[in-house]
Design brief:
Blueprint (H helix, E strand, L loop, with lengths): L12 E7 L1 E2 L11 E2 L6 H15 L8 E8 L7 H14 L2 E11 L6 H10 L3 E7 L3 H6 L6 H13 L5 E7 L6 H13 L4 E6 L7 H4 L7 H17 L3 E4 L2 E3 L6 H7 L3 E5 L4 E6 L4 E7 L3 H18 L11 E6 L5 H9 L6 E2 H8 L7 H9 L3 E4 L2 E4 L1 H5 L1 H6 L3
Parallel strand pairs: 1-4, 1-11, 2-3, 4-5, 5-6, 6-7, 7-8
Antiparallel strand pairs: 8-10, 9-10, 12-13, 13-14, 15-17, 16-17
Helix pairs in contact: 1-2, 1-10, 2-3, 3-5, 6-8
């Protein structure tokens, strides 16, 4: 593709906060999570997160933060008091949107009634519970620290704490899983009355225990039956599929994830956090990765503190101590980067949105889109593009046209 340019506009801004510790590493997990040995350095980590954000303030570019997502790891290992200090500290440095969405991922194995109530009081207004399954055998095989009773209690605590905005993570395609077992998990999730369900297939990722020792997974025919039955069940209970693995009641979509998929901007703070930032003045988009190891991240915080004390805040030797690397996304990469996100959404995207978010002319995609239309994989209505039902079913094939 050539690199015909348009004007790159500033999109909405979100904030991702990574908490890298967990009680036990799950065998399927390829996230930046580390089993915590000994006391959690909670106060030092909150200090580091605030300082990390302070260093990233030039990238805010006068925008308000529209959403915050606290992921991990197991963020619910940290206390509500820690999040209260963190959120108050962030709000002193940057504007929060009046209707800001603040999501916390929580492990049912760490759920406590008062803790959830205190999270709500600290300003967290959306909870995402990593249930994965209600089947005790499957939970054990997945290496989860909770059982089906913990899952039910966590959901109860979330409702009683006032979390009307609740997501449940549910997996399918688990070890030797039959259709009936997968549907039982999904039916229990629906019965728990969340506004949002993330329902996704177990995938075997490199650098995981399951990659080295793969479990026996269901055959392809069973997976197809599970998916067809699950989609019908969710639709029948009012859950709209607005993204490949995301289902919501009316108005219950994750605003934070929508910003990712619409190719919005997001800052990432915390060990191993990623960010994607538009620099309008330089007409480029940056990728940013923070130091991955928690120990290295905290060492960077200690070094930054020493520099401030020795040289003053305005005369630092390292102005971005938490960065592992950063660099622009090249123009030839941008179309696929955009489409990998935007085509996950059932709504698709607009030609205007493509041009504003990438700084490239939509004319770069015209020929490929025409081919996909001819094959019945994509439809265009005025300014708006989306995959057809067939195209959504074979999304990887559609994306292959833009590689």
């Amino acid at each position: 593709m050539t690199s015909a340019r348009t004007t790159l506009e500033l999109p909405p801004l979100s904030l991702y906060i990574h908490v890298p510790w967990c009680v036990r590493k799950c065998p399927y997990c390829d996230f930046n999570s580390h089993e915590q040995k000994g006391p959690l350095p909670e106060d030092d980590y909150i200090d580091a997160l605030l300082d990390d954000f302070r260093h990233d303030l030039p990238y805010v570019q006068k925008r308000s933060i529209s959403s915050i997502f606290i992921g991990g790891g197991t963020p619910s290992l940290l206390s509500a008091q820690a999040y209260d200090r963190l959120l108050n500290g962030l709000q002193k440095m940057a504007d929060f949107a009046a209707d800001i969405e603040i999501t916390l991922e929580a492990n049912p194995g760490t759920a406590e009634r008062n803790k959830f109530t205190d999270y709500r009081s600290a300003g967290i207004n959306r909870l995402s519970l990593g249930i994965q399954s209600f089947n005790p055998q499957q939970l054990q095989q997945l290496g989860r620290i909770h059982d089906e009773h913990d899952a039910a209690r966590a959901i109860e605590f979330a409702h009683k704490a006032g979390f009307s905005r609740l997501n449940l993570d549910i997996m399918y395609g688990l070890q030797d899983q039959a259709l009936e077992s997968a549907m039982s998990d999904l039916q229990q999730a629906v019965a728990a009355a969340p506004e949002h369900i993330s329902w996704y297939q177990l995938t075997i990722e490199p650098n995981t225990v399951f990659f080295k020792h793969p479990p026996p997974l269901p055959p392809e025919d069973t997976l197809i039956d599970i998916q067809d039955s699950g989609l019908a069940l969710l639709a029948g209970h009012g859950f709209e599929r607005y993204e490949v693995s995301a289902f919501a009641q009316a108005g219950g979509q994750s605003r934070h994830n929508l910003n990712y998929w619409r190719f919005g901007d997001y800052l990432g703070i915390g060990a191993g956090a990623h960010g994607k930032i538009t620099q309008r003045s330089r007409q480029r988009i940056l990728r940013m990765h923070k130091r991955r190891q928690p120990g290295h991240y905290l060492q960077a915080a200690a070094a930054a503190k020493s520099q401030r004390e020795a040289h003053g805040a305005g005369n630092l030797l390292n102005r971005y101590p938490y960065l592992a690397d950063a660099g622009p996304i090249e123009a030839e990469e941008l179309p696929l980067e955009f489409l990998l996100n935007a085509l996950r959404l059932r709504e698709g995207f607009s030609k205007t949105q493509f041009e504003q978010r990438t700084g490239l002319s939509f004319a770069l995609l015209t020929d490929r889109v025409s081919v996909l239309q001819t094959q019945g994989l994509m439809e265009v209505s005025g300014d708006q593009l989306r995959t057809t039902d067939k195209g959504y079913q074979f999304l990887n094939s559609v994306l292959g046209y833009f590689v």
